[in-house]
Amino acid sequence: MNAIPAAVIVLAAGEGTRMRSSTPKVLHPIGGLALVGHAVRAARATGAPLVEVVVRHQRDRVVEYLAAFDESVVIADQDEIKGTGRAAECGLDALPAVTSGTVVVMNGDHPLLDGDTLNGLIARHTEQANAVTILTANLPDPTGYGRIVRGSDGSVERIVEHKDATDAERAITETNAGIYAFDSELLRSALHEIGNDNAQGEKYLTDVVAIARRRGRRVDAHVVTDLWPTEGVNDRVQLATLGKELNRRICERHMRAGVTIVDPATTWIDVDVTIGADATIRPNTELLGATSIGAGAVVGPEVTLTDTEVGPGATIRRAEALLAVIGAEATVGPYSYLRPGTVLGPKGKIGGFVETKNADIGEGAKVPHLTYAGDVTIGAGANIGAGTIFANYDGVAKHHTRIGKHSFVGSQTVVVSPVQVGDGAYVGAGTVLTRNVEPGEIAIARAGQRNVADWVDRARPDSPTAAAAQAARAAGARFAPTETERHTDNTPGATAEGDAR
Ligand code: UD1
Ligand code: CA
């Protein structure tokens, strides 16, 4: 018998009142995926040719999410009649081609339901030729869940909702996970029979069970011992609890695959993140979205990476990056902010208090301290001095700057874009650079230095400072000329603004 279901119907039309949120419940994320995204993933793992999501509450938002997440998902709209039974009915009505075989119906709010658990349910349903197979678990605290009522022979007779249950029924710990395999014909006809005479005035999907029994059909439960996949999110407390467990499972998977995670309790990794062997993730780190970490990289402490690619052997600490690429053996941090379009070459460096955006930094190039580098291409082996600002915005438009290979930009330079610095060129410290610099040139644009002899004696007579100066002079102390004096200041006016070339 074919164990692949004809369709999986995900119920996601409910309001999720207990979330107290303007966002529909099924769009709340854990592990970087909305709850309904987790449901669709599990549904896809069955191999079913049709995966359908039933929507109603804020349907456009849910549909928009799904279109981006999995464009081949079928959308069905639930009408104003409430309840999971009505949702399943609307879902099935939108799949007229499904006339036989198995249909899986699952709540859209069970993010830890995985493909293996779902396939286990389907396998049992198929092997035993059941009309209905319910995923169940024995929960230590079954409050709120539907209870599985079994007859004296142990067979499943019906499901009673917590709100409709007697005290004796509430004492039952076997609960309905809200995940079922049905014979599609039985489901279709039984759903038409269901009323709404219950505590919530809704059409309950769970009532299909008693109807199947009345018709003499086989109903069975697939009892699982891993309780997490059976737990639904109804409020934000459960969202956090399940989010933490999902994260624990993700961390465990990476550790078993050869990643060192120093403190899994403070490391948050989204489901789709990939990490190479022998990478180390240090505490208080978030790896989000489509982030990938190369083998042997060291990430953390205190790093948040979103949709960022980290090369093998790179080191990143106390940093935040979004849509960035960090090359092999490059180093980032501490206190660095890499914004979209940052590409750091192999062995490159982005150091402390540096912000980058649309910055292509070549192999071995260094931006070590206190810099803003936006809209810039920095050649291989170049060095950008402390405090350099790439002034890419003139108040109207953004402009792009190019710094050549093995060039050296002195500290506290303001590069007024657009401007080009050739390969192997220098820019003197403190320059406000507004003109291009050819290869091999040095550019200096700042007020020339003026030293006024004996100023201290006149302006601060009888001070400790004046005494110190006099003592030094008496001892005959003189400084040797600095590099700058020897190489540039020997040209009169070389350091005066605009005279550098
Ligand atoms: C449901 C089950 C309960 C089970 C529990 C497991 C019913 C009647 N009860 O209760 O036995 O123990 O799940 O978590 O099925 N939905 C719709 N349309 C609606 C109402 C709900 O699509 O009109 C969707 C929701 O979006 C949600 C799912 O169905 O994804 C479950 O709805 P929810 O209201 O959370 O059901 P529970 O009260 O938890
Ligand atoms: Ca629920």
Keywords:
single chain, 501 residues, alpha/beta, Spore Coat Polysaccharide Biosynthesis Protein SpsA, Chain A, UDP N-Acetylglucosamine Acyltransferase, domain 1, 3 domains, 14-stranded parallel beta sheet, 7-stranded mixed beta sheet, 11 helices, 21% helix, elongated, disordered C terminus, binds uridine-diphosphate-N-acetylglucosamine, binds calcium ion
Compose a concise summary of this entry.
The protein contains 11 helices and 39 strands.
Task: Describe how the helices and strands are arranged.
Elements: E1 7-11, E2 29-30, E3 33-34, H1 35-44, E4 50-55, H2 59-69, E5 74-77, H3 84-93, E6 102-107, H4 115-127, E7 132-138, E8 147-150, E9 156-160, H5 167-170, E10 174-183, H6 184-193, H7 208-214, E11 219-223, H8 236-256, E12 260-261, E13 267-269, E14 274-275, E15 280-281, E16 285-288, E17 292-293, E18 298-299, E19 303-306, E20 309-310, E21 315-316, E22 319-322, E23 325-326, E24 331-332, E25 336-338, E26 343-344, E27 349-352, E28 354-361, E29 366-369, E30 372-378, E31 383-384, E32 389-391, E33 401-403, E34 408-409, E35 414-416, E36 420-421, E37 426-427, E38 432-433, E39 442-443, H9 455-459, H10 464-474, H11 483-487
Parallel strand pairs: 1-4, 1-6, 4-5, 7-11, 12-15, 13-16, 14-17, 15-18, 16-19, 17-20, 18-21, 19-22, 20-23, 21-24, 22-25, 23-26, 24-27, 25-28, 26-28, 27-29, 28-30, 30-33, 31-34, 32-35, 33-36, 34-37, 35-38, 37-39
Antiparallel strand pairs: 2-3, 6-10, 7-10, 8-9
Calcium ion (CA) binds next to loops.
